[in-house]
Amino acid sequence: MINSRQNSLARRARAVRERDVEGLIFVEGLRLCEEAARSRLYVEDILFTEKFASDERGARLLEELRRVGARAAEVSEDVLDFVADTKTPQGIVLLANGPACDAVTFESSLTREPLVVVMHGINNAANAGAMLRVAEAAGAAGVVATQGTADLLSPKALRSAMGSAFRLPIWSGASFHEVIEWCHVREIETVSTDLDAKQSHTEHDWHGAHAIICGAEAGGLASEEIAQTNARVRIPMREPVESLNVAVALGVVLYEAARQRGFA
Q1: Helix, strand, coil percent values for the chain (each to nearest 5)
Q2: 172-188 residue pLDDT tens
Q3: What is the pLDDT confidence band of residue 242, given thresholds at 50, 70 and 90?
Q4: Are 157 and 126 in contact (CB under 8 A)?
Q5: Which phi and psi angles does 180 have, rounded to 5°?
Q6: Mean pLDDT, residues 27-45 taken together
Q7: Strands (DSSP E) found in the chain
Q8: Over the Cα atoms of the chain, what is R_g?
Q9: How far apart are CA 42 and CA 40, in angstroms?
Q10: Second label for 191, Cα 20 to 30 Å away, from 24, 29, 56, 166?
């Protein structure tokens, strides 16, 4: 039993939570930890409470993780409160190896005619996580997060994505110009959402390789960025509504693309 907040493992877990340990991610909560196990993430350490271990579902998860070599340490409720990122911890935290998020790994995972999501300047981690989840649900091949976009492997984004960040190919840290050029070289049609676009998202032909580019929550893409994309689409909305949450807007467009491509 670890009772001190000054314990080395507790301090290390806190550092991982704050993204100060390269290569490791902080996974918290029963459901998300189950997703990590299901996705076969390599888990280095488990921190759990006595209450969590006494629950049948929790005990089953602990046994599964121990079987694949994860080190487990029981901690007091006070220590878990110190380590946790949530206000009401569920009694378990994993320190796991995060997925690779580089361009080479990303490209090697793509299908022949991919449907890619590009997050440009999305600054809310919860929105970014929700976008990851809807991207996976709608059959997107992967997600690109440009410089300035929220960390997709932060605790808040991971909770919002609910496992999608463990499975969906991600490329983080590219510049907007780099992504546009990457798409151009690979003949991936880039499509931006624009309130002033003449074509609705249902009128666009989504067959073939595409990249849907979503701008920041407050102002979307800049006019010069929109001008660099191959096509623009708008989502029809009844007045007086002028905009949708970025994750909702992405879902609307993605599912139309999926419908045309035979997914739904």
Answers
A1: 40, 20, 40
A2: 999 999 999 999 999 99
A3: confident
A4: yes
A5: -60, -45
A6: 96
A7: 24-28, 43-48, 71-74, 92-97, 115-119, 142-146, 170-174, 189-193, 210-214, 231-233
A8: 20
A9: 6
A10: 166
